[in-house]
Amino acid sequence: MFVIRFNVWRLKVAVQTLIDFFHYIETDIMLDCRARFAIFTQIFRSGESMKTRRLVIKLAASISLSVLLVLPTQSFAAEKITVFAAASMKTALDAANVAYTAKSGNQVVVSYAASSALAKQVEAGAPADVFISADLDWMDYLTKKNLIKPDSRKNLLGNRIVLVAPKDKAKPVDIKAGFDLSALVGDGKLAMGAVDSVPAGKYGKAALEKLGAWSAVARKVAGAENVRAAVLLVSRGEAPYGIVYQTDAAADPGVSIVGTFPADSHPAIIYPVAQLTESKSAAATDYLKFLSSVEVSGFFTAQGFTILK
Hints:
By secondary structure, the chain is α/β, with parallel strands linked by helices. It folds into three domains: 2-75; 80-157 and 271-307, Periplasmic binding protein-like II (D-Maltodextrin-Binding Protein, domain 2), CATH 3.40.190.10; 161-265, D-Maltodextrin-Binding Protein, domain 2 (3-Layer(aba) Sandwich), CATH 3.40.190. Helices cover 49% and strands 18% of the residues. The chain is built from 13 helices and eleven strands. It has helices at 2-21, 28-46, 50-75, 90-104, 115-123, 136-144, 181-185, 199-210, 214-217, 227-235, 246-251, 283-291, 294-301; strands spanning 80-86, 107-113, 130-132, 154-158, 161-166, 190-193, 221-224, 241-245, 255-260, 270-275, 306-307. The strands form two sheets. Strands 2-1-3-10-4-11 form a six-stranded mixed beta sheet. Helix 4 links the parallel strand 1 (80-86) and strand 2 (107-113). Helix 1 runs antiparallel to helix 2 (28-46). The longest helix has 26 residues, at 50-75. The protein is globular. The chain starts with a helix and ends with a strand.
């Protein structure tokens, strides 16, 4: 009798340990396990007939089987995906990543910066799985150095560049050939991404050159490390105007769009995405498919991006 009681006690402790181990795994299977264990405890306290002990053993076995079913899909399937993404992606991509994690269980960690800075980090060996650039040039740069997986590359999104002003001082500006942006800026600064490296700055300079406004305003440009930093200069009143992406203007309530640059005044704004050559993440392929799915497109269009097919 003592041996039987001792064995049942040991079985109870073992099963409780398993249940405690999976306490934070919120799946229907584990919830079912905890319910079965409650029955286990009730039976154990009610008596120790041979029939009762057999029932206890069956319940314990069913709990163990459920735990084994959970292990492959929950404990070992989740992965961390490291993404290097253009700063202008932040608002939309953060929302998309929350949805992806909820769906897959995989954790997405994002480093946001200018595409130029991120590409240089990849070149220097920074560990990452996915790169999303705000232009084709920096993706091409990594392609030439064999740092991306060519088959994974895809043109994901499109954008537009706009002229913004502080919200309380915004007046419409007719952006066309010959418009005098220098006079509008006056003694202030024109906030832009750095025109020699940051994609938004490169697009902005190209547009101003095409419209004949660059030479007069070039000396007034305040080059920022990324487009979000350029938006902040205007939002805080440190610059009367800025040239930024439409999506960044939408993300900052402190600025208003006063004009949109003609699409033919600059190269097409394209955001390519690709998995990096050194990535060992099996989940990265699934993540790239998710970013191209209809399921996630609403997060991008809500911020003003266009979906590229």
